């Protein structure tokens, strides 16, 4: 044992009785899932939607601590209220995140009504809004960890600008912005389906695929 101790100590390994080894192995296995979870990146999702008599548009930004940023300008086809537009933008943002394998997400919205309805269970009477709220809850349930917070409009300025781009698709010059067109004809269950139901706009040459670089490292 003395000889083995000397040789192993060169590698910072200390021999121990079998019982201690079993316990150490059990502790290692128990700690391993927590180590993996810590490696997975949490993404920040910023969403905004707006509606007027002439147009309905939305903006989505996904970013993380590594500096990755995805920007989307969305044009909604159909007539919506302003609150409905906020929900539609959120649903699109969640689908983009889900499609790209993001499982941990913190959502930022400047809509107090949306945050209160989703987080505090405020009663929704309109059938359309009930459907949208249910769709949001179903999609949120697919994430491992999620959080929804209200932020001042001043902190949502980039998404607000993107939302304004939705109705000016032919004038978009930023190659980092993906342009989407979404139908709003129906929206019931979104889990496992296409959900957002968008198509990429054909009016701009600057349409790009998702620029997601997941920051998962090899173990």
Low-confidence stretches: 2-16, 32-38, 186-195, 199-219
Shape: globular
Question: Mind telling me the C-alpha Rg?
Answer: 23 Å
CATH fold-level assignment? Nucleotidyltransferase, domain 5
CATH domain class: Alpha Beta
Give me the strand/helix succession. HHEEEHEHHEHEE
Tally of contiguous helical segments: 6
User: Mind telling me which CATH architecture this is?
Assistant: 2-Layer Sandwich
- What's the β-strand tally? 7
Distance between the termini: 34 Å
Percentage beta strand:
15-25%
Number of structurally distinct domains: 1
Strands in their spatial order, largest beta sheet: 5-4-1-2-3-6-7
The biggest beta sheet is recorded as: 7 strands, mixed
The CATH superfamily is known as Ribonuclease H-like superfamily/Ribonuclease H
Helix fraction by DSSP (H/I, runs of at least 4)? 25-40%
Structural class: alpha/beta
**Mean of the pLDDT scores?**
70
Pfam family, one: RVT_3
InterPro entries: RNaseH-like_sf, RNaseH_domain, RNaseH_sf
Protein name: RNase H type-1 domain-containing protein
Domain RNase H type-1: 39-168
Describe this structure in words.
This is RNase H type-1 domain-containing protein. GO terms for molecular function: nucleic acid binding; RNA-DNA hybrid ribonuclease activity. It holds the Pfam family RVT_3. The protein is α/β, with parallel strands linked by helices. It has one domain: Ribonuclease H-like superfamily/Ribonuclease H (Nucleotidyltransferase, domain 5). It has six helices and seven strands; from the N terminus they run ααβββαβααβαββ. The protein has a seven-stranded mixed beta sheet with strand order 5-4-1-2-3-6-7, sandwiched between helices. Helix 3 packs parallel to helix 5. The longest helix has 22 residues. The chain starts with a helix and ends in a 19-residue tail after the last strand. The N terminus and C terminus are likely disordered.
């Amino acid at each position: 044992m003395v000889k083995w101790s000397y040789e192993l100590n060169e590698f910072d390994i200390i021999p121990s009785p079998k019982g201690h080894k079993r316990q150490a192995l059990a502790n290692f296995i128990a700690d391993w899932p927590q180590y993996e979870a810590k490696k997975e990146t949490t993404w920040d999702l910023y969403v905004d939607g707006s509606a007027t008599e002439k147009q309905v548009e939305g903006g989505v930004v996904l970013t993380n601590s590594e500096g990755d940023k995805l920007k989307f300008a969305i044009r909604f086809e159909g007539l919506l209220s302003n609150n409905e537009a906020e929900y539609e933008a959120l649903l699109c943002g969640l689908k983009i995140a889900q499609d790209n394998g993001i499982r941990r997400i913190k959502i930022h919205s400047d809509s107090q009504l949306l945050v209160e309805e989703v987080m505090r269970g405020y009663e929704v009477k309109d059938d359309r809004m009930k459907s949208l709220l249910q769709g949001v809850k179903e999609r949120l349930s697919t994430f491992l960890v999620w959080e929804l917070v209200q932020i001042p409009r001043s902190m949502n300025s980039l998404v607000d600008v993107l939302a304004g781009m939705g109705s000016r698709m032919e004038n978009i010059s930023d190659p980092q912005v993906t342009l989407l067109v979404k139908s709003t004809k129906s929206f019931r269950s979104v889990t496992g389906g296409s959900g957002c139901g968008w198509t990429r706009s054909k009016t701009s040459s600057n349409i790009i695929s998702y620029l997601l670089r997941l920051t998962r490292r090899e173990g």
